[in-house]
Amino acid sequence: MSPKTLYDKIWDAHVVHEADDGTCLLYIDRHFVHEVTSPQAFEGLRMSGRTVRAPDKTIAVPDHNVPTTEGREDPEAMTEDSRIQVSALDKNAREFGVHYYPVSDVRQGIVHIVGPEQGWTLPGMTVVCGDSHTATHGAFGALAHGIGTSEVEHVLATQTLIQRKGKNMKVEITGKLRPGVTAKDITLSVIGATGTAGGTGYVIEYCGEAIRDLSMEGRMTVCNMAIEGGARAGLIAPDEKTFEYCKGRPHAPKGAQWEAAMDWWKTLFSDEDAHWDKVVTLKGEDIAPVVTWGTSPEDVLPITSVVPAPEDFKGGKVDAVKRALEYMDLTPGQKLTDIQIDTVFIGSCTNGRIEDLRAAAAVLKGKKIKDGLRAMVVPGSGLVRAQAEEEGLADIFREAGFEWRLAGCSMCLAMNPDQLAPGERCAATSNRNFEGRQGYKGRTHLVSPGMAAAAALTGHLTDVRELA
Length: 468
What we know:
alpha/beta; 5-stranded parallel β-sheet; metal-binding; 16 helices; globular
């Protein structure tokens, strides 16, 4: 047998049929659905008289549209569009008999946090969801990616997906990270090095000492943003940290099934002589705390840098930088640490887990945020929220001046009441800084949780290492 990558192994284990042109029918182990991309898919089933093929492998959770303030179960708390979509998911989940975590359930939260938390996400699986950041689940050595609404219907009806195999890309982060540098800085630095199209057509496997040193939550952050680098999916080979994280979770295998699963999981690594179509290597010690300055995740620099000028770039990027600087109201040569902010958002499927909240709270403990600043923390799930309250983190946030919210996607995207006003500037732990992503004409700077907390204290983008 020829050597295989991790991607090759998972793909080959799930191919149901391969056509002469290379198009494959792929079996899907887990299907996550939320309220935004599923209504038309369920309606398609209803109109054709079909049922959900594997309701036991389908998990529904509302997250994008739900308000994060108390009293949100009142339909009047939502916009009409949100109310219709959440109501439709509620009806569809119950009618088709899939696993469901409604807003009233403490286990509700962002779909990509709920899945791993409940043990639905396991090594070697194929995982899909009508959401681009499904790449998050690749942290477990699962082949996970977003799909469109018509594909959501196809998976609901057949538990399969029509796919073409991508190419193999290795991203290696060697050595150790320096103090103050996090998984968020790794994944943004990779995108800065490759560009947002660097991974187009590829599935990325992240490896190297710095990746192995990350916790499972850090690995989820790295894989979460593989999609922002253009990749179809991101993968990290499972190891003892992975197995320990999964063990004992509600939907993880137990007893003899666990032992059988472990036998398979321990084969999930890239063979030594496996072929890579593209290789990118970064030195861990060269990565610094970073911040985005423009309107694309590739517009990223160390916090110690200055805003670049259009003439620093070539080709079509020159005009893109001109537009970004105008939209962001920034001047070439301006220190990144001189950029004043109005808002801080800590949350999202990128950085809404308990370790993210601990990191931010460690910076904020005993301090107060800048007068006049708006700051909110939105835990990634009800269980993360409960754990943070039990650990005293919620008290630290409240005492510092943060709003302590209920679980949901919140200000990561402008699909719920948590939005930026036109011209408002935000240090956010989310994954996208596109024009209007957090609200019409809102301006977003992507940072790690510690960097977001530091910015909240000073009122401007700040090197968290100066506050350590």
